[in-house]
Amino acid sequence: MNYKKALLPLCFLSTGALAANNYASVELTHLQPTKTDSTWLREKQFMPRYPIELAMKGVAGCGVFNVEVDENGSTERITLISSVPEKVISKPAINVIKDWDWKLAEGKMPASEEKLLRLDFCMGGSSQEESLAKCKQQATMACE
Fold first, then answer.
1. Tens of pLDDT along the chain (144 residues)?
2. Domain residues for 66?
3. What does the alpha-carbon distance between residue 34 and residue 131 come to, in Å, rounded to a whole number?
4. The total number of structural domains that make up the chain
């Protein structure tokens, strides 16, 4: 019985130490057109979710995608242009993009639009703020 009582606090300490390093962030960059020049914008402007498949494997990286949005604001096609690590980011990131709803930007007429978007998936840091800063820095580096 005493053995179990001694082991319990050790388990909590171990879990806390692991959780401290599990901050994850996603950075979305509008490459072409820029966000201000876009016809279609994401309806909900919050940080995209980190794909569970990548998080569970501890995968960080980036992907550049060509996204085609039709004149009704529906996603027609998503194509991977480049990614690091190669082939690992593609499927989970495409699933994230598929979930997005598009709204017409203010003052724009409905028209189809091709977008070149970059998603950076970052892990690590001692806080959420540090993880976000790390992701912003990663987004300035090449993704090829």
1. 443 343 333 333 323 333 445 788 999 999 999 999 999 999 987 778 888 889 888 899 999 999 999 999 999 999 999 999 988 989 999 999 998 999 999 999 999 999 999 999 998 888 989 989 999 999 999 998
2. 23-138
3. 24
4. 1
